[in-house]
Amino acid sequence: MSDIEIRDVSLVYDTPSGPVKAIDNATIRIAASEFLCIVGPSGCGKSTLLNLVAGFLSPTSGEIKIGSSPLSGHGMDRGVVFQDFAQLFPWRTALGNVAFGLEMKGLSKERREEIALSHLALVKLGEFAHSYPHHLSGGMQQRVAIARALAYNPSVLLMDEPFAALDALTRDAMQRLLADVWRATRKTVVYVTHNVAEAVYLADRVVVMTPHPGRVKIELPITLPRPRDPLSVEFLQCQKDLLRHLGSEMDASDAPKICDDGATQR
Amino acid sequence: MVRRTVVTLLAAAALYEAAARSGIFPAVLVPTLPKVARTLVNLVQDGTMLWHVSYTLARVMCGFALAIVVGLPLGILMGRIRALENFVMPLASALMPIPSLAWVPVFILWFGLGDIVTALIVFYAAMFPMLLNAWTGVRAVNPIWLRAAGAMGAGEGALFRKVIIPGTLPFIITGLRQAFQRSWIAVIGAEMLAASDWGLGWVIFDAKEFLNADVMMASLIVIGGIGYAFERLVFGSLERITVLRWGMVQAAKS
User: Fold this and answer.
1) Homologous superfamily assigned to B32-244
2) Chain B within 8 Å of A19 (Cβ-Cβ)?
3) Of the candidates B142, B150, B247, which has its C-beta nearest A74's C-beta?
4) What is the pLDDT of residues B174-207, one digit of tens each?
5) What is the reported pLDDT for B170?
6) Which of A91, B3, B126, B177 makes the best surface tag, with the fewest CB within 10 Å?
7) Domains of chain A (ranges plus CATH)?
8) The complex's ipTM?
9) Do B153 and A104 count as a contact with CB atoms less than 8 A apart?
């Protein structure tokens, strides 16, 4: 697994009303096999930063390194999971979707199916291998997307609010599943979310970003032992700490709330 | 499905029959259905209808196939390559509103009467729906599919074959349907003007000389039948085994 170095990265968009700084001088180091969450209100540039690491965007200045090599475009060292359920190819079965990256790698059909099936089993969808995405629920589709991003064995997994569109119960189950998958695969994970409880549940370390322009405000290590109990006093304390850092930011911005859970709503 | 079709057809036939027997119109101009049916059976039995259909179908297929071979790749590439779009669209926009039949006299001057003119007119008519639908389809492909495929290492070639073409399929199928429809409109018209001796358009036009309204009606029924058969057996099936099965389009509710 690879470490990631984001050094002095800025991104400036050109808009009709002049240049807009989306990311200002972000520096983050992510250790190999670390689970890093990036949290912040809308417009803080957290998804933009993820897109930079994914290679969908290029930084205006600064450098991103994965392992020891500087980033250029997207590559098979990274797997990406988006929020949108529509990310799966509707014309391919779950198996066909998961096998896509392996196909691009040029593996034989037997080998592809074998690896794809094992990854579907990893996300507990082995029996749905031959279903088309539109026959699967939202949570199942996101599990297929996770299996698809892992199947070609990238060292880094990039996730952009993958569970944000799911109902609360499904989201809890998905978080547990993702924690298990991460423990089994030990990928380096960069996970973008606006959900504080989710960040505390999943992360080794949380990076809080602030908007206008997008800056790294603070990094908080989460040292709770795993598996974590979201109802424990320590867990709630962590959530409070994180909310405090976010909260002072919320006053400055006009974002109404930072997460959907009643427990953490301001 | 089949039962509903039968009900619709029976209702339409009953209306026509009532009009034909009402005595409002001269019987020779509005023949009753039994008379049309007898004429149709005779035309089929003496083999002439089969020849007319074969000629027309061959012309349609040549022009339609050529329209697919040219229009489909061109439309898809236009959706991806800005320069090609900029080059082709002004030309297509100017040519599209020109009715294909308006070209018939010109084509006759260039190629003489016969099969080449009719096939080329079909090609002209079918080309633009194919082109426009493919072009629109490519631009309507969900960008997240392209991102996901790119992240998984798909190059431009793999993107085309494994993402853009299947992602464009609902539009491609619509394009095929429209192109096929236009092909028939064009072929019948072109045959009326540019064919001699064979072809459904020619039969209909020729029957006018002898006031053979029953032959005209029989030919129209054959054209409708062929259209129906193609929709059920070709386009409908194609849709069922692809985009309907994949949930990219949904069957109408209730």
Assistant:
1) MetI-like (1.10.3720.10)
2) no
3) B150
4) 999 999 999 999 999 999 998 778 999 999 999 9
5) 96
6) B3
7) 4-77+156-264 (3.40.50.300), 86-153 (no CATH)
8) 0.86
9) yes
